[in-house]
Amino acid sequence: MVFSIRELGAGLLDLLLPPVCAGCLCETDGEALCRACDVRSELALPDEPPPEPLASWTAAVPHDDVARDWIARFKYPKRGLLGLDPAADAVASYWIRRAALAVPGEAPDAVVPIPLHAKRLRERGFNQATSLARDVARTVGSPCRPVALERIRATATQTELGRAERRRNMAGAFAARGAVAVPARIWLVDDVATTGATLASAARVLRRAGTKEVRAVTLAWRPWIG
Length: 226
Ligand SMILES: [Zn+2]
Hints:
Layout: H1 5-16, E1 56-62, H2 65-75, H3 86-101, E2 110-113, H4 118-124, H5 128-140, E3 149-151, H6 163-170, E4 174-176, E5 185-193, H7 197-209, E6 213-221
Parallel strand pairs: 1-6, 2-5, 5-6
Antiparallel strand pairs: 3-4
Helix pairs in contact: 2-3, 3-5
The chain binds zinc ion.
Residues 21, 23-24, 26, 33-34, 36-37 line the site of zinc ion.
């Protein structure tokens, strides 16, 4: 298993720093945010049904200004040691674990992150979805399988695209990988879901490869505003 410098550094800092709230630095009982800073005690359950063929989708928080800042820090760390951001890592981990516990149904046979394209992975140095998937896997006691899916096509950024365009943009973006049997029940993990086009595209590939049920878990859900 390969850990990035960033993950190792965050692990070390966890040992050195006492449990304080990442938002206001007050002491906490070990959670990443105190009750006052973690205003979203309710899960951000998406208010529309999951896109086919997802069986369910669960998000920890709505994608508001606060969540956007934390997720940007988690997702786009500065280069090198400046990129060590244990507070952002802790908040992301805390939220994704909470979402994992709220997913309906039994624990999955495997937890699979949405992969980055190889080129993007080289530029970025790590896939944030993989560290989220590891947290989910640990939380529910299932194996994490980061290589079950491969991104075979570099896709345009979705930000400017409409709902149907997003679906087209993600079509054929993924392939199932490996000669081993595809697990029957898989949870897909990503940072933010909007229309669910990315998750649905990955889920279709897994279903075609033999997976019976695919559920999605994300940090945040951003309601689609046409
Ligand atoms: Zn606080």
